[in-house]
From TrEMBL:
Signal peptide: none
Organism: Selenihalanaerobacter shriftii
One Pfam family in the UniProt entry: OsmC
Name this protein carries in UniProt: Putative redox protein
Amino acid sequence: MTEVNVKWEPGKKFCCTGEGNGKEIVISKDDISATESFLMGLCTCSTINLINILEKMRLDFEDLNVNAEGDITDEGRRYYEKIHMHFEIYGNIPEDKLERALDLAEKNCLIVQTIGPDTEITHSYELK
């Protein structure tokens, strides 16, 4: 079982900790919306997977950035109907191996698996 803790410090911030090494992430309620935090979680999950896969494939990269945008339904049950993630990878990686790594990263992202079939998730990339 995975466990996290989110503590609200009234008027200030959320302090988020995981069960791993006790690191704390501090987020101000005025700096981020709930919908943004969802996309950030998706990007973080996918990026952690991608980094692990690239390292296992022994593919060198210098830096990595991901941007996401999503469209939320206007009527009825509110959910993201489309999400697009754009990865910028700085390094000398063969495109076929990068495409495979991105597919695996998305496929193995627990958040992607949890979202469900009503949401279309796509990705693109740039090698720099």
